[in-house]
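Below is a filled-in request sheet from our internal design queue. Each sheet records the structural input a requester submitted and the sequence that came back. We keep these sheets so that new team members can see what a complete request looks like end to end.

REQUESTER: design group, bay 2
PRIORITY: normal
MODE: inverse folding
CHAIN LENGTH: 511
BACKBONE (tokenized):
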């Protein structure tokens, strides 16, 4: 057990054997490490870059309770989402908080006050357990349908033409999803797991009877290692097919990619509530506009995927299309590309190639059943919200364990707790002259959370990377907290500034 945090020691990790090896350090890999360690299994997680650097980070940061599943009468998914939203609210109260949502109603189709009043009443009735055991400030109020006057009070810029009222409901949101993921990984390590970033699993080790582990490469030292286990779970997110093909074969249907992105605008939020909006004419999708750190965060833009890039981004035309839809939905909004501060883009799975219909259920592949080696499994997840529950189900299938502990954990008390408030700074914060108190938390993170590069600290351990201008200006002062020599410090600062340059270019020029 490692109560001090995450220790990156590939050599020590290679001297041990494991019940399972997890390939991929996004939220699904992290939850597999947590659930397996809490279940008494010895697990090793390998991430070829840094933890949570892809889709897990580039989201709208909303924890959905399953209202859309209720609309499709998918009750199992609805109840799972409600339970997992509750677990996140209870386990990470500093980072996961209630989020009020408002959808203006114009009497079109199913979006009419009478229909939404019934739907929200059913939602509240079926999700009554969603507040059990939560602190008062984490509890979700009941849903309601309000009149046009109240809608205008909450959302002054609402299109008043034919406005019939508004639907109000509550979900939850993360301000800093990277702190939630790191809390999960710290908890997993404290419970016996090992997790290694910048270690790439390149080859599957086999015996006559099946999987024997992986041969991996430490990206930092250039050293190769063999890690031993009879079970390997490929949880590499958008690159799960690439890993599956390298280890065995590319399974049909594992992950069909589509490009999705969320945009931070240099505007104050339009409402204290998240807004569900769509132009009243045409076939434009529904967008969510939510308050985020004093800015307007809108999502999501969505486009069928083509060639998967390591650093996905929408084209200028795709960005303009989204901005046009938002301006149509809110008269007088007049957003422009010049106001884009940040684009959070990633790959999401869809039901089939070229589709925009997001997959609603994860995919689990037992490679033995398709002619591959026993002990190799590949998974493709769906939502941050239900990643823990998906991990529990996967482990139940692989290890044929009793499900009582996991069911109890979902509806009862969490089996532990995880720190999540450290490393969070206001959007416009800058290191104050003469004040060194802020350095303490950063030094603790550097020492305890496997921070290999300056970029890791800025973007994936703290909120310092939210404001790109601030991150670039503070790079030298923040870099001085690391025990590096002058040359290494300059290299890291140069790499960070180049990364910031690319991110800023993405907001202005696209591809």
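RETURNED SEQUENCE:
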């Amino acid at each position: 057990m490692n109560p001090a945090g995450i220790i990156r020691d590939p050599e020590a990790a290679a001297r041990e054997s494991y019940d399972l090896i997890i390939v991929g350090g996004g939220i699904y890999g992290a939850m597999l490490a947590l659930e397996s360690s809490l279940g008494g299994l010895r697990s090793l997680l390998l991430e070829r870059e840094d933890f949570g650097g892809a889709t897990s980070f580039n989201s709208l940061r909303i924890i959905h309770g399953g209202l859309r599943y209720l609309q499709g009468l998918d009750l199992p998914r609805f109840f799972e989402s409600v339970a997992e939203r509750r677990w996140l609210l209870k386990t990470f109260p500093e980072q996961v908080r209630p989020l009020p949502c408002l959808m203006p109603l114009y009497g079109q189709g199913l979006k009419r006050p009478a229909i939404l009043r019934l739907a929200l009443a059913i939602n509240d009735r079926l999700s009554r357990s969603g507040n059990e055991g939560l602190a008062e400030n984490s509890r979700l109020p009941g849903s309601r349908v309000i009149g046009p006057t109240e809608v205008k009070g909450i959302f002054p810029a609402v299109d008043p033409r034919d406005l019939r009222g508004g639907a109000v409901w509550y979900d939850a949101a993360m301000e800093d999803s990277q702190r939630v993921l790191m809390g999960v990984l710290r908890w997993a390590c404290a419970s016996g797991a090992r997790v290694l970033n910048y270690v790439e699993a390149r080859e599957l080790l086999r015996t006559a009877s099946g999987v024997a582990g992986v041969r991996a490469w430490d990206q930092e030292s250039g050293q190769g290692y063999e890690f031993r286990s009879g079970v390997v779970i490929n949880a590499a997110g958008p690159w799960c097919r690439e890993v599956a093909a390298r280890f065995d074969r590319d399974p049909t249907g594992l992950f069909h990619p589509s490009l999705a992105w969320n945009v931070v605008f240099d505007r104050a939020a339009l409402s204290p509530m998240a807004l569900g909006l769509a132009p009243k004419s045409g076939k434009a999708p529904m967008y969510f506009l939510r308050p985020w750190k004093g800015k307007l965060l809108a999502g999501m833009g969505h486009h069928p995927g083509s060639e998967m890039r390591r650093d996905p981004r929408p084209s200028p035309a795709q960005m303009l299309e989204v901005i046009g839809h938002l301006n149509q939905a809110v008269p007088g909004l007049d957003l422009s590309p010049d106001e884009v501060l940040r684009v959070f883009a990633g790959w999401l799975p869809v039901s089939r190639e070229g589709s925009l219909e997001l997959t609603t259920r994860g995919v689990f592949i037992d490679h033995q059943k398709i002619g591959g080696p026993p002990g190799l499994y590949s998974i493709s997840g769906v939502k941050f919200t239900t990643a823990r529950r998906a991990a529990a189900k996967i482990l139940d299938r692989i290890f044929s364990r009793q499900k009582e502990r996991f069911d109890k954990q979902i509806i009862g008390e969490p089996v532990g707790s995880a720190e999540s408030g450290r490393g969070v700074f206001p959007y416009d914060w800058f290191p104050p002259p003469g004040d060194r108190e802020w350095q303490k938390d950063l030094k603790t993170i550097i020492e305890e959370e496997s921070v290999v590069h300056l970029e890791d600290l800025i973007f994936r351990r703290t909120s310092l990377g939210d404001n790109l201008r601030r991150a670039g200006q503070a790079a030298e002062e923040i870099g001085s907290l690391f025990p590096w020599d002058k040359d290494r410090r300059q290299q890291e600062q140069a790499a960070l500034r180049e990364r910031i340059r690319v991110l800023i270019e993405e907001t202005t020029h696209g591809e």
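SHEET NOTES:
- Residues 402-418 have pLDDT under 50 and may be disordered.
- Residues 486-509 form the longest helix (24 residues).
FILED BY: M.R.
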